[in-house]
UniProtKB/TrEMBL annotation:
Its cofactor is FAD. This is L-amino-acid oxidase. It is found in: Secreted. Keywords: Disulfide bond, FAD, Flavoprotein, Glycoprotein, Oxidoreductase, Secreted. It comes from Chrysemys picta bellii. Residues 1-387 form the Amine oxidase domain. The gene is LOC101941085.
């Protein structure tokens, strides 16, 4: 899990919990491109992007996908209000065509190399805010990202109800009562509080019955939000065949189903190499969702064989264990993160964060930029501040939430 350097909130907790970080590298000169039936080293493509044989205009030749995209941003103002007024209705592809004046070949290159092809229909403003993070350097937690939630768990002093599904939330002028179902029981348990903070995904909120019902604006916003259904396919390999190509860290990029392959920059004590054999977003990920695990693994093994020019039987033999995560099938999250379409940023942002009486809401979908851990933490802190403000403004002024 990569963490941008400028995400200060999550890094503050990492420091507090005395966790260590090491650099996360998105690129490696020895990794591969396999696009348009052209196989080339990443370093060679960086030096000469025309290797990939996209049909570009004379003024576009010799420029990387990032350079082509960045040159379209000259017209973008730093005035946030003006940005919203002008570009809230634009999709990413519409902006590149109408404002960026790029050729179709340049747009195809941006889509393939910058992982935007499956997201061209999304909001340009949404992507613009998210793109800022990718201009930064990244780190990862040394020894595994699971250490961060584990540290949070150990630091908490209140009871946590694992595998307990919230069914309904009832509130009046004085209290909020949360009803939930524990595993292997039909009877509902409940907790009563002065205030409640709901920190699920927007999709999961819709599984909860609220009394009184949520406002029509929030209900409509929750229903309309679009979620990406990202898919990650990991392979555990007895032999680190990618290291024979001099690949440590970084990623390979292909227009085949796997799309983006990430290589480890660290060693496991067992000697096994774990590779993220496919990381797909949006419509690219949807391709894998209906497939069986066996078919998913077969496809990414075939792609790895083509990218690294190795027999598929060899890849199948040395990479015989896998883990697949399909966020669209996660029964708790019901999706990976919000992927806004045109008009949704302006239409829904306020309603999504707005509290409903004594019930408050947090999560990456309630703040910007979406999808990041930092954003979820920022949203939770903002909601907590709002709750404390409500407590201070109440007649008693000393209630506990």
């Amino acid at each position: 899990m990569r963490l941008p350097r400028h995400h200060r909130i999550v890094r503050e907790f990492i420091t507090k919990f005395r966790l260590k970080l090491n650099p996360f590298y998105n690129t490696n000169d020895n990794a591969w491109y396999l696009i348009n039936n052209v196989r080339a080293k990443s370093g060679d493509v960086d030096r000469n992007p025309d290797i990939l044989q996209y049909p570009l205009l004379p003024a576009e030749r010799g420029k990387s996908a990032s350079e082509l995209y960045d040159q379209t941003l000259d017209k973008v103002t730093t005035d946030c209000r003006a940005l919203k007024e002008k570009y809230d209705s634009f999709s990413i592809k519409e902006y590149l065509i109408k404002e960026g004046k790029l050729s179709r070949g340049a747009i195809d290159m941006i889509g393939d190399v910058l992982n935007l092809d499956s997201s061209f229909h999304l909001s340009f403003l949404y992507y613009l805010m998210d793109d800022i993070a990718f201009k930064d350097r990244f780190d990862e937690i040394t020894g595994g990202f699971d250490q961060l939630p584990e540290a949070f768990y150990k630091s908490m002093h209140r009871d946590i109800r694992f595998q307990s599904t919230v069914v309904k939330i009832l509130q009046d002028n004085e209290k909020v009562r949360v009803f939930y179902r524990r595993p292997l029981t039909r009877l509902l348990s409940s907790e009563t509080a002065d205030y409640v903070l709901v920190a699920t995904t927007a999709k999961a909120v819709r599984l909860i019955k609220f009394s009184p019902p949520l406002s029509s604006k929030k209900t409509h916003a929750l229903r309309s939000l679009r979620y990406s259904r990202d898919v990650k396919i990991f392979l555990a390999c007895r032999e680190k065949f990618w290291e024979k190509d001099g690949i440590y860290n970084g990623r390979s990029i292909t227009d085949r189903p796997s799309r983006f392959i990430y290589y480890p920059g660290h060693n496991f004590t067992s000697g096994v190499g774990v590779i993220l054999a496919s990381y797909t977003w949006d419509d690219d990920a949807q391709f894998f969702v209906p497939l069986s695990d066996e078919k998913c693994v077969d496809l990414v093994q075939e792609d790895l064989a083509e990218i690294h020019q190795l027999p598929k039987t060899y890849i199948q033999n040395v990479c015989d264990k896998h883990v697949i995560k399909k966020w669209g099938l996660d029964k708790y999250a019901m999706g990976a993160y919000v992927s806004l379409t045109p008009y949704q940023l302006v239409d829904y942002s306020k309603a999504l964060f707005q509290n409903e009486g004594r019930v408050y809401f947090a999560g990456e979908y309630t703040a910007h930029p979406h999808a990041w851990i930092e954003t979820a933490m920022k949203a939770a802190m903002r909601a907590a501040r709002s709750i404390h403000g409500a407590v201070s403004a109440s007649p008693s002024g000393n209630r506990k939430s």
